[in-house]
Write the structure tokens for this entry.
Amino acid sequence: ETGVTQTPRHLVMGMTNKKSLKCEQHLGHNAMYWYKQSAKKPLELMFVYSLEERVENNSVPSRFSPECPNSSHLFLHLHTLQPEDSALYLCASSQDRLGTEAFFGQGTRLTVV
Amino acid sequence: AQSVTQPDIHITVSEGASLELRCNYSYGATPYLFWYVQSPGQGLQLLLKYFSGDTLVQGIKGFEAEFKRSQSSFNLRKPSVHWSDAAEYFCAVAFPGGGNKLTFGTGTQLKVEL
């Protein structure tokens, strides 16, 4: 148990669907992150939230829309995705201080059909 | 550009043998260095980290890593591998001035033969 919980664990969606990924942390952290893990590629940082404000958006397509309603919850809203968006999406949290350990959730395995 | 390289995509070792996984980074100064492990279907778990001080750091599960500034390396080692160590290992760095964002290598898949 890492303290970071992601739901659902698996998701299959069509290209016209709208779905959301949820992440919850109970570690008292003030920063949360979305990463994308594709086969044979490094983990890609997608979004960073610090104190519930988005501080980083690494040129992610607008079909991915993050939301951070409070310091414990992070969402990734998905719409009109493409098959190449199929990947493992990992949420992480940490204190917003350089070098502090990031705790990761187990990820959501997304398949776009 | 700042980057992290793990030159070995796959490594196979026999149980009980020693292990070394390589990690090199490209950056003008010393970054913060991490090793994470990912078991199948799981998220990433921190094994160890280096910020400053003693260049040999000890982590969980019997792992250690040595920071070598001259080689820009942070290699992970374990004296005797157990079958349960089979997993994917990621080296990551956080660069000063970059907040607490992690830049990851592509990972090394470790297979342990019994």
User: Anything to note?
Assistant: Chain A touches chain B at residues 2, 4, 6, 31, 33, 40-43, 45, 48, 50, 55-56, 90, 92, 94-107 (CB under 8 Å). The two ends of chain A are 31 Å apart (CA to CA). Chain A has a mean pLDDT of 91.
